[in-house]
Fold:
Amino acid sequence: MKLTSKGRYAVMALTDLTLYYKNGPVSLRDISLRQNISLLYLEQIFLKLRKYKIVESIRGKKGGYRLSRKASDIRLSEILSAVDENVKTVRCIKHLKKGCNGKSIKCNTHKLWDELDGHINSFFEKKLLSDLAHKNDLEKRL
Amino acid sequence: MKLTSKGRYAVMALTDLTLYYKNGPVSLRDISLRQNISLLYLEQIFLKLRKYKIVESIRGKKGGYRLSRKASDIRLSEILSAVDENVKTVRCIKHLKKGCNGKSIKCNTHKLWDELDGHINSFFEKKLLSDLAHKNDLEKRL
DNA sequence: TATATTCCCGACTTATTTAGTCAACTATAA
DNA sequence: TTATAGTTGACTAAATAAGTCGGGAATATA
Structure:
């Protein structure tokens, strides 16, 4: 089990965005340089974040992105599901085809994976973007 | 994030083993047939389970495997780590190379992943093999 | 002792997913 | 009118996971 870098990057980038947003929007170029994430890859990621209304885009020169809500209103679970890091460990569907109908021993372990899903999801639902972005972290570095 | 099928199979197979063990050892062939998991793949998995002293093997005709301890003494975390499902979401090492030293904003999110690791690990540490294998599940099907 | 069964083990192939790139476009500030 | 920055789909490369193969060793039983 692992979290892929896409979700990690999304969280990192949004933390950066939260910290560096002041008056104007923050460009991906800047985030890319600061966080050392490929610009082209960031574009892919922010496309999804925009579709899920986590960020808003401003085009053109001086353009960039800004959060569409307060950081304290954005759950990490939303971010991860936006970039398709679906915290869904196992789907029974595959097995159904082979005779797993929820009654047989084959399904003995399903409840376990369901519980696990719930366990992980609740972790990310409790965490807010604002929990990660502390202004003082930023100031220390300047 | 997802749990791979290797870990899933390991848990399924051991649940099966627990339920079907009576006097003699249980062969992988039987588990393979009941759980619909490739025999060759099971061999791979049980090799690791044996190395980690979760099961013991009995060779030869009428051979097979048995648990090396009571099911109530086997944590799921052991099973998963045996088959290399290391529940380690992110290692900072990769990033260190690119300048992540635990102080910069790049590491802002690390604490998060560490917490997540702990959260998931504690889930699997609390769960025992015996929690999954209930004799009555078996009897219902006979 | 011969044979079938079962575990043992490394190497190999294939499939799937993730990570990252490219090219061509649209909008807008200066 | 030009440089900047987001938009989009398609593409490639790399990594990982899943699964297979072939040959070997141990042992119960006939």
Q: What stands out?
A: The radius of gyration of chain B is 19 Å. Chain B has eight helices and two strands. Confidence is low (pLDDT under 50) at residues 91-103 of chain B.
